[in-house]
Amino acid sequence: MHELAITEGVIDAVTGRLPGARITCVRLEIGALSGVVADSVRFCFDLVTEGTDLQGARLEITEPAGRCKCRICGSEFEPDGPILLCPCGSPDISVLTGQDLKITSVMVA
Amino acid sequence: MQLLPASHNHHGSHGHAAGHSHEPGHEHGQGHDDAGHIHIRGPAVSGRTVILQQKVLAKNDELAQRSREWLRSRGVLAVNLMSSPGAGKTTLLERTARELAGKLSLSVIEGDQETALDGRRIQAAGAAVVQINTGAGCHLDAAMVAEGLRALDPPSGAIVVIENVGNLVCPALFDLGEEAKVVISSVTEGDDKPVKYPNMFRQADLVLVNKIDLLPYVDFDVRSHAAELRRVSPGALMVQLSATTGQGIQTWYDWLRRRAPAPHE
Question: B203 to chain A nearest CA, in Å?
Fold first, then answer.
């Protein structure tokens, strides 16, 4: 359950950047290939924000799909699940997008 | 979530771990867009938007990079050793510390949820050890390791093995400042571990298949494990060994020796 540490990281990052601000909304981007489960972050969010400047804040999560490029046949594809196989069968791929785990923006009261 | 009916063979179907299991009560805000699903919860809010565009793990990654630079400047190699609980991380390090004593300076940062039992085992085998207890935590992070490195104070030319908490999921996300990631698979586990935990195996530089002395008694197919590993990490090196009998262990020692930095003058 690394999502607990991840969610605590969100609170640390926001309060570090905006000390003392009343945060009313947090927007996260959790890429499909980031290894983080959005539902678990959602589950942890209310628990770890309690008593912080983020308490009661709304949580918005976007989950961009993954995008990979095959080093063998050169085609770009959206992986079907966490096993990153090109439709040509090659596992030799590079990940273009979908690994990001970031706080895109917040709203301040 | 994926329901697999009992009578069907769903080989090749994929799980939905990174997907969207919509429980009742989840409000779907703006529906779908090109960036993927948007999930919203909580009341409508007003206020001023502040753009952050900040990686959640930025603090960890920055600390890890600082450790990496510190290690390089000292001429110390750090290896992040990961596996499920019971795969043989500590047994491997005990044997390594004993057999390479006097040939290689080995230090260990030992991560466990609780107790100093493993740290003591490795200390008894002759290596310098720092034991870190993560308490509720399921992984080591860069701050814990940075503190461990300061306490260890490894000499130039040393190898520091960071024995992560036994877990094939969470440690995959946290950069600790290491130069290489080593994952142990043991033959008492399934040979399909690489595809079940792709995030972990994808990053491995070296995969050690441990407990091969037990191969006659278990259902583990080494060739199938190798094929599954190639599917998630075509570049990873796979070595078969037994940390208990010492079979195949020389290849692990050679791998370490090749990477050991030359001590600074």
Answer: 12
B131 in contact with A at a CB cutoff of 8 Å? no
State yes or no: ipTM above 0.90.
no
Cβ within 8 Å, pair B53-A104: yes
Instruction: List all residues 6 or more positions away from B119 whose beta carbon is below 8 Å from its beta carbon.
Output: B108, B110, B112, B129, B130, B131
Q: Do B173 and A36 count as a contact with CB atoms less than 8 A apart? A: yes
Note the pLDDT tens digit of each residue in B50-69. Answer: 999 999 999 899 999 999 99
Tokens of B185: 């698979």
pTM for the whole structure: 0.84
B66 touches A: beta carbon within 8 Å:
no
Q: Contact B42/A100, CB-based, under 8 Å? A: no
Alpha carbons B196 and B16: distance in angstroms, whole number:
12
Q: In this structure, what CATH number is given to the domain that contains residue B236?
A: 3.40.50.300
- At residue B142, the 3 state secondary structure works out as helix
End-to-end CA, chain B: 57
Q: Tell me whether residue B25 is in a domain.
A: no
Domain count for chain B:
1
